[in-house]
Amino acid sequence: MALCALPLIACGYSGEAPPAWGQIDRDRPARKPDVPYEPSSPSAIAAMIELGGPGPNDIVYDLGCGDGRVVIEAVKRSGAKGVCVDLDPKLIKRAQSNAARAGVTERMRFRTEDLFTTDVHDATVVMLFLWPEINLRLLPKLLRELPPGARIVSNMHDMGDFPPAQTIPVTNAKGEPRNVYLWVKH
Q1: If I label 19, which of 42, 96, 146, 150 is the partner at 20 to 30 A Cα–Cα?
Q2: Residues 151, 120: contact at Cβ < 8 Å?
Q3: Could you tell me if residue 8 is inside a domain?
Q4: Where are the alpha helices (DSSP H) in the chain?
């Protein structure tokens, strides 16, 4: 009996049943996230909402939403609908909890999905706080799937040679100067 238990201990068996076949382990991301979670500063959130200009008829997506603070605030201020997308199920759970505290759950959807494969066809505003290389990888998908007039807003990082329609300077949580960028799909 002891010999049978040894390989299980050596492999890190915790005694818990693994997820069923075809099920995702909801405690861990399906793959390593592209960027680490870093919350947007209050000034960046305000600038993102100002540039995105969401209204009651908009659907605001936050790709790599983290705890949902950007899209939740956009939904609270504008009456829009919001969609939180993050690879990390723990962050999605935190976003759900934050939306409940903010009283906007009925206008929100939460997706534990990869931002490169999630369907964004119904988005009218897309919020991003990623890295420059991730923005550039994501740009073709956004230009292909978003409807004309959709707004793309990025905290801190631009889209390379794709010129923004507008930029607002802000400071991050450490007081360092940064920019928030807006692009409008034509």
Answers
A1: 96
A2: no
A3: no
A4: 2-10, 42-52, 69-78, 89-102, 132-145
